[in-house]
Amino acid sequence: MTSFQERLFELQDKEYADFQAKLTPTVPRESFIGVRVPLVRKLAKELIKDPYCEEFLNTLPHEYYDENMLHGLLISEMKDYDEVIKKLDLFLPYVDNWAVCDIMSPKVFKKHKDELLVEIKRWAKSSDTYTCRFGIEMLQTHFLDDDFKAEYLEIPAVVRSEEYYVNMMIAWFFATSLTKQWDATVPYIEKQRLDKWTHNKTIQKARESYRITDEQKKYLNTFKL
């Protein structure tokens, strides 16, 4: 039987591996096989039905970045919510870069919002960089639209971290929240609820958004520290 790693090598593009390595500086170049993301997605949809899938998901750490990408996409394809949470808790401590973290978006989460919010609060409190980042990203993905409550903004607002990839996620979250829930979110800028770097980065990202009006951008700029 061909292993999942061998399947990835069949799709290898070494020039793309060089490109990926430049975008993901926390991972050494030799860890990249070089499989384009659409091909990994397609492979995940195929391999989720493979009897070896469970063994692959339980065998950590992986040797290659691309295996981690495949792992994250396989979890995203799973249909059992409780099993997804178990697999995430097993995998997240091994995630060592933003790309693998951000590619995970389990489809089953849409049907389990109440339970998911509990897990998001737990993940966001984690001292592990990418567990925390993942929690905040899931809050952004699932709770800034119809299921939004102003109190949810406190979840990322109270996070304090020295990690760039956590603080960038918080800034991304609040910039997105400003585009979708301006009235509830702008007090966090007015009252300087975030640390200085994240505060300024939030304003920068919001001002880069086409979903923020020119008037709103000017207003935000008056709060730059």
Element layout with pairings:
Blueprint: H1 4-9, H2 14-23, H3 37-47, H4 53-58, H5 65-77, H6 81-91, H7 98-103, H8 113-124, H9 129-142, H10 154-157, H11 164-180, H12 182-190, H13 196-207, H14 214-221
Which terms summarize this structure?
225 residues, mainly alpha, Serine Threonine Protein Phosphatase 5, Tetratricopeptide repeat, 2 domains, 14 helices, 0% strand, globular
Walk me through this protein's architecture.
By secondary structure, the protein is mainly alpha-helical. It folds into two domains: 110 residues, no CATH class; 114 residues, Serine Threonine Protein Phosphatase 5, Tetratricopeptide repeat (Alpha Horseshoe), CATH 1.25.40. The chain is 62% helix and 0% strand. The chain is built from 14 helices and no strands. Helix 3 crosses helix 5. The longest helix is centred in the C-terminal third of the chain and has 17 residues. The termini are far apart. The mean pLDDT is 97.
Q: Give the structural class.
A: mainly alpha
CATH topology of the largest domain: Serine Threonine Protein Phosphatase 5, Tetratricopeptide repeat
Mean pLDDT: 97
Q: What is the count of structural domains?
A: 2
Q: How would the global form be characterised?
A: globular
Terminal Cα separation, in Å? 58 Å
**Overall helicity:** 55-70%
CATH class of the largest domain: Mainly Alpha
Short description:
This protein is an all-alpha fold and 225 residues long.
